[in-house]
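User: Can you predict the 3D structure of Site-specific integrase? Sequence below.
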Amino acid sequence: MYLSDREAELAKSSLQNHRYHLKRFLEFCEATGFEDMADMDGRTVYEFKQYRRDEGGVNQQTLSNQLSTFRVFIRFCENLGEVEKGLADKIELPDIDPSEAARDEMIEAERAFEVIEYLEKFEYGSKKHALFYLMWHTALRVGSVYAIDVDDFHPEEGYIELHHRPESDTPLKNKQHGEREVNLKDYVCQVLQDYIIHNRDKVTDDHGREPLFTSPHGRLYKNQIRRLVYSITRPCYYSGECPHGEDIEDCEAASFNQSSKCPSSVSTHPIRRGSITYHLNEEVPKEVVSDRANVSPKILEQHYNRQTESEKRKIRKSHLDNL
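Assistant: Sure. Here are the predicted structure tokens for Site-specific integrase:
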């Protein structure tokens, strides 16, 4: 009932997270023999929290995420009269160290430009080149990249449109609030145009739309996008060298399908985080970066801004020296 109630308001990925988190509660019920919500009280809440911490072996951040969903579920049960009023308020989330709450993995600007330089020289206009360059330049979420159609790209005016289209399986994380127009510099537009003309698979998706990024079978799935990113961020791919001392010929991670096993490869989100940090280091105002990346200034600062204190100081200095 809870999942059905939230389906209309949550993005598909968020709903899946809620389902996964509440499955942990069902495991607790099975393990302890708990079977009637009318018996739910503060002690049961405490026991569930301890169960996840001890039996689940989860860290504080994961525990906090799961309890947060559980608290919303209990509040839903309160409204149905299934549990006592005020029980949800008794569910205390663990204190999270800020350094643990925000994952720090990102691709550094220097390394991102190494990847782009390699692709420009040896794979110009390829799917990999267009995809990585667009993601680095715009700091888009993988779901946004997945949702772009050819018609959303406007090379003459130099921008792309992002639309929330849940009816044809391309929702945006923030729904209508994620819809926007994102400016592209001229050279990015040129790379995208050449990719579309020469290397894009001329296919439509299951809804008759023309995706920007494709496979021979239709729209390029988000997991396929991640796999491409993993593959091209391996140092052996763009530099021909392995910083981990592996023989590239024999290394398991050197194959495309196993590229995520390389300790230096990254997925899509570290590109977004690295791009945002790069924009900030280039002194693009936070408000502009916030709008461009579709993330609130508070979340941007907490989860995406990986500027060092020295970088922040130098930027402040460049502004203060002009006073």
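The chain has a mean pLDDT of 89. The two ends are 60 Å apart (CA to CA).
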